[in-house]
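batch_manifest entry 22 of 60
target: Pseudouridine synthase RsuA/RluA-like domain-containing protein
source organism: Coptis chinensis
requested by: lab member K.T.
priority: normal
notes from requester: please return tokens only, no post-processing; we will run our own comparison against the previous entry in this batch. if the run fails, retry once and flag.
--- input ---
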Amino acid sequence: MSEKAHVNSTTINTSTYPTPLSPPLPPISKQIELQRAMSASSKSSLFTLSKKDIIFEDEWLIVVNKPQGVYCENVLSSIPQLLIASADSPVPITENNTLELHLANRLDRDTSGLMVITKSHKVAGKLVKAFTDHKIRKTYIALCIGLVPKWEKISIKSGHGRSKFGVWRVYAASDVGRSLPGGSNVRDMATTFEVLAVNKRGKFKEPTRSRPSEEEFVVVEDKGVVCCDMSDEILVRVYPRSGRTHQIRLHCQYLGIPIRGDVKYEGAHEWEGRAFDGHALHAESLLFDHPVTGLQVEFQAPLPSWAIQALEPVSEDG
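--- output ---
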């Protein structure tokens, strides 16, 4: 009797889990992701940072421009070799002076752009807390393939969490706080998007520092846009207002403009006769208070070639 009651109780609890609003991983993604991971492992094992990859360095931290297809840990492990070879480093590494290097932020394997590496435990603690508390303003550039959106700028707020299969999914904003199958809860996720170019027509503009008010957010409660027509190329700037795993990629998929090459979230693996070995997402800029001096610092990474090409006007002859 008690065993039966326990089974019924388990069934009831399982049925109360919130339903994801974004679709599961496409079947093709497993094979492609495995190939990409193997390729990245090989590339990362041979990776060495060069001086041109360093955006900024002082005695407390280093800001680097990570290339696509390289794991963060391999960027970190290549720092000592670069500093040993660099005579003009603020704090050169010697046998008697080893640094306590830490990753203050992380990027997905195929995301390029700005990473901050700290040189001491104390500075790492301060900067990691600033990232966790969302006190660091970040912008990204993404190249999306889908239908041109009706909006030029939009801010959306939703839930975020893992489904019963362990996959990151978008949930309704009203589901925030509810329990998920793995024992975690749905957390809030907010992102602002602005269109920079459509089909290579547009122009680069500097990121805005203004933040949307609560009234300006579109609160997500229904399923997202079904992306079935891959006809347009949309370059967007993204302002993540929270720092959830795969946040930008999930929200792009939800809006019906998945990132080119992002096979996990319905992004086109092939486009205009070319196959891509990673997704087109770039960590463009960081703005924060320096963890030691307290001064506001801002860093910007050069645009990758795919972003520059997306801003170029189409030739009238071509």
